[in-house]
């Protein structure tokens, strides 16, 4: 509603202020510039800002909150003992449980049990959103957002500080980012705890775990940081080795390529995308699941999980007082995440991506409509001019 009102107002002002400019300085094939009024720029800026906020909200709510809950959720199982009617002709006779009846006639081992495994809350977006809203209101959909912003800001600042110490060399940035992630293990673990636990009156920074507890998660954090850097570096290295950076630095060089050359470049871009996706699914995703489950094993007893959650992960977490390490191991964290949960997590990411694509198409149509209102037939001339330039370069 608000955005529609703003767009209508800006379109009306744009018509008043830009029509004269179009008449005085029509679009020329030799000129690649077009002056827009302040109101036109404001309208497009509002649309761009709204798009950014919507996409960020979708990514965080579904791609972070729901995905994190799916990584730690342990669906509950309910055992039901089948009840039988007492041996009496009285219709109002009391029911006897198999335990009571077995005590008179049969052993307990022969009693009938029915085990029902509850469907995971994160099995669908609808049930997850309803559950979160019921337990924390609409704000619960962005639970942990403040801790997330703090972690990303501190990670950026720490990375830049480390690079400053070592002479701001770009080649050192991956290692600096890796070290920064390790240093901020406590903040990252707090972020996870805020997401997976019930609402707490404490501010997120008051929930920072002890250094001893955070130290137990450092191996998992190092694994995730390594996987994250590989996800960034491997496609980037391929992109540079394939010589694709020049088409970004000089976009006109793309128009100078013959048809076969363009097909070859597009195949290289496709290969880079496939490699990046493979690294993210096969390396980064398991590392992220491992990190979240290891961090969840350190959730303090005073906090309850917002979804069904087994603190011991099937007895794999043994307290230090009982001779254990008090933390979930790296291999155990991934192995205990069964295939049903893995498939459910992949579906969450696919659904999130589909929603983002749909929203992007919607906003693309909105921007096109705004440009049509602002520029009129000039938009068609501009598109035709660029298309003609590309065709002329391809023929040469």
Automatic annotation (TrEMBL):
The residues that cross the membrane are 36-54, 147-169, 175-196, 265-285, 348-369
Keywords of the record: Membrane, Transmembrane, Transmembrane helix
Superkingdom of this protein's organism: Eukaryota
- Report what the protein is called: Uncharacterized protein
The protein's organism comes out as: Lasallia pustulata
Top-level taxonomy: Eukaryota, Fungi, Dikarya, Ascomycota, Pezizomycotina
């Amino acid at each position: 509603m608000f955005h529609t009102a703003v767009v209508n107002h800006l379109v009306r002002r744009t018509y008043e202020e830009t029509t004269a400019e179009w008449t005085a300085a029509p679009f020329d094939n030799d000129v690649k510039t077009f002056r827009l009024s302040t109101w036109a720029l404001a309208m497009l800026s509002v649309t761009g800002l709204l798009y950014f906020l919507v996409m960020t909200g979708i990514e965080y709510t579904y791609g972070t909150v729901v995905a994190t809950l799916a990584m730690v959720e342990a669906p509950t199982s309910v055992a039901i003992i089948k009840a039988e009617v007492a041996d009496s002709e009285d219709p109002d006779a009391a029911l006897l449980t198999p335990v009571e009846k077995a005590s008179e006639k049969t052993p307990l081992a022969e009693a009938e049990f029915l085990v029902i495994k509850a469907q995971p809350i994160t099995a669908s977006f609808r049930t997850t959103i309803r559950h979160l809203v019921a337990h924390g209101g609409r704000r619960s959909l962005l639970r942990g957002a403040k801790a997330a912003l703090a972690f990303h800001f501190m990670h950026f600042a720490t990375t830049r500080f480390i690079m400053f110490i070592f002479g701001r060399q770009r080649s050192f940035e991956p290692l600096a980012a890796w070290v920064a992630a390790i240093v901020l293990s406590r903040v990252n673990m707090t972020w996870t705890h805020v997401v997976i636990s019930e609402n707490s009156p404490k501010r997120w920074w008051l929930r920072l775990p002890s250094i001893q507890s955070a130290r137990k998660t450092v191996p998992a954090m190092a694994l995730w940081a390594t996987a994250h850097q590989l996800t960034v570096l491997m496609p980037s290295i391929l992109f540079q080795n394939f010589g694709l950076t020049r088409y970004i630095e000089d976009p006109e060089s793309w128009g100078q390529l013959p048809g076969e050359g363009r097909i070859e470049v597009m195949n290289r871009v496709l290969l880079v995308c496939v490699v990046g996706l493979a690294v993210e699914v096969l390396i980064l995703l398991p590392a992220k699941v491992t990190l979240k489950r290891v961090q969840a094993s350190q959730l303090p007893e005073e906090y309850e999980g917002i979804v069904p959650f087994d603190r011991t992960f099937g007895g794999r977490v043994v307290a230090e007082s009982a001779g254990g390490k008090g933390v979930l191991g790296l291999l155990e964290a991934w192995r205990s995440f069964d295939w049903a949960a893995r498939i459910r997590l992949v579906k969450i990411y696919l659904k999130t991506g589909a929603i983002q694509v749909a929203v992007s198409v919607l906003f693309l149509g909105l921007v096109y409509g705004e440009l049509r209102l602002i520029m009129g037939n000039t938009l068609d001339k501009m598109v035709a001019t660029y298309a003609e330039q590309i065709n002329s370069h391809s023929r040469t």
